[in-house]
Amino acid sequence: MDFGNWEGRSWADIGKSAIDIWTAEFATHAPGGGENLSAMLDRVQLALQAAQQLCVAQAVQDVVWISHAGVARCVNWLQAQGAGVKPQPHQWPTAAPAWGEWEIRNLNGESVSS
User: Fold this and answer.
1) N or C: less crowded end of the chain, CB within 10 Å?
2) Residue 55 has pLDDT above 90, yes or no
3) What is the 3-state secondary structure (H, E, C) of the chain?
4) Is the pLDDT of residue 98 over 90?
5) CA 26: distance to chain centroid?
6) Whose CA is closest to 78, among 67, 65, 66, 87?
7) How many Cβ atoms sit within 10 Å of the Cβ of residue 82?
8) pTM for the complete prediction?
9) Hey, where are the domains in the chain?
10) Is the Cβ–Cβ distance between 102 and 66 less than 8 Å?
């Protein structure tokens, strides 16, 4: 997710009022003028669909994604809630693989291991 002019700044430097505005419209507000969460969820959903289609069309068994925690959280959300369901801040998954860790998931949504 693109956090616009928030990139590389600490939460304290951004300020509580700006963060409050973002969390009030969590899925649709573009923090720092960057990308909103709905747009990121849409992009990740398209990638998930493409991976699923690849598995079916070409009998592919394994698809590897190398990404950051934001994408992992989007996959978690989409597999648990489905596309089109926009999260509230308190619903957003906080768990994600840490730096250097991984998670294995079936495309049907089941977490296999991490």
Assistant:
1) C
2) no
3) CCCHHHCCCCHHHHCHHHHHHHHHCCCCCCHHHCCCHHHHHHHHHHHHHHHHHHHHHCCCCCCCCCCCHHHHHHHHHHHHHCCCCCCCHHHCCCCCCCCCCCCEECCCCCEEEC
4) no
5) 13
6) 87
7) 10
8) 0.85
9) 10-113
10) no
